[in-house]
């Protein structure tokens, strides 16, 4: 990836990011809930979660997708979620309890560069508008952690802002703003498909979309069977 344009770095600390998302957790759905919905729904559709599966959402935010994942896995499956923000966790937990699913979805507050789950635990992982929040050196660490906790042959669907070789004026403007105000804006376009491929995942499909002129890629990938011991 050395011959292509670099992606912007993220300079704000995890503590600063956590504080920011804690503050906006109560009104995040008003800010981004509707605008992100169709992209998240596309990712869920591509993941094709099956009844009885054990599924993890990385960066669950206010928990909108957790309920849909729980509906897909049914009463014999289980859904886990991890998010950096305690504020987001509290909002998501309230949503889950109000839906009567308090015992069916298990949430954790933590950093995805070190997932608190056993190897080969999950059939599928879902993550939307989260991978691009990590600084450039952290992205492969997060993806390797996803690789570790997925069962051999397990699926992963990532929805993220995507950097293209020929960026549009809107992308260049957004990156200019993000680079100068990274203490407040850590989300930026990344080479989604290439980052996932470089980690050893097998790319199954890529759906290219656009959000207010900014490219969004929905990437479905699979963990190679040969990368771990035989599935339990």
Using only CA atoms, what is the Rg? 17 Å
Query: In what order do the strands lie side by side in the largest sheet?
Result: 3-2-1-4-5-7-6
Q: What is the residue-averaged pLDDT?
A: 91
Q: Please state roughly what percent of the residues sit in beta strands, choosing from under 5%, 5-15%, 15-25%, 25-35%, 35-45% or over 45%.
A: 15-25%
- Unreliable spans are none
User: How many DSSP helices?
Assistant: 7
The CATH topology is given as: Rossmann fold
First and last CA, distance: 36 Å
What is the CATH architecture assignment? 3-Layer(aba) Sandwich
Briefly, what CATH class? Alpha Beta
Provide the number of structural domains: 1
What is the H/E order?
HHEHEHEEHEHHEE
Counted beta strands: 7
CATH homology superfamily name: Vaccinia Virus protein VP39
* Net shape: globular
Instruction: Provide the structure class.
Output: alpha/beta
Helix content: 25-40%
Largest sheet data: 7 strands, mixed
Write up this protein.
The chain is an alpha/beta fold and 232 residues long. It has a single domain, classed as Vaccinia Virus protein VP39 (Rossmann fold, 3-Layer(aba) Sandwich). 36% of the residues lie in helices and 23% in strands. The protein contains seven helices and seven strands, in the order ααβαβαββαβααββ. The chain has a seven-stranded mixed beta sheet, sandwiched between helices. Strand 1, helix 3 and strand 2 form a beta-alpha-beta unit. The protein is globular and about 50 Å long. It starts with 13 loop residues before the first helix and ends in a 10-residue tail after the last strand. The model has no long low-confidence stretch (mean pLDDT 91).
């Amino acid at each position: 990836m050395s011959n292509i344009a670099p992606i912007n770095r993220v300079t704000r600390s995890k503590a600063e990011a956590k504080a920011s998302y804690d503050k906006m957790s109560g009104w995040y759905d008003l800010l981004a809930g509707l605008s992100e919905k169709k992209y998240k729904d596309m990712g869920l559709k591509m993941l094709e979660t099956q009844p009885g599966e054990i599924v993890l959402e990385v960066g669950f935010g206010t928990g909108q997708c957790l309920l849909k994942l729980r509906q897909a896995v049914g009463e014999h499956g289980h859904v886990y979620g991890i998010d950096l923000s305690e504020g987001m966790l509290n909002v998501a937990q309230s949503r889950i309890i109000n839906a009567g699913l308090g015992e069916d979805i298990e949430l954790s507050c933590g950093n995805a560069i070190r997932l608190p789950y056993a190897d080969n635990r999950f059939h599928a992982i879902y993550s939307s508008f989260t991978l691009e929040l990590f600084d450039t050196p952290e992205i492969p660490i997060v993806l390797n952690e996803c690789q570790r906790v997925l069962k051999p042959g397990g699926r992963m669907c990532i929805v993220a802002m995507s950097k293209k070789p020929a960026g549009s004026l809107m992308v260049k403007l957004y990156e200019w703003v993000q680079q100068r105000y990274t203490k407040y804006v850590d989300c930026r376009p990344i080479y989604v498909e290439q980052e996932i491929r470089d980690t050893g995942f097998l790319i199954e499909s890529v759906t290219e979309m656009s959000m207010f002129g900014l490219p969004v890629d929905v990437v479905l990938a699979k963990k190679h069977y040969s990368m771990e011991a035989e599935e339990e």
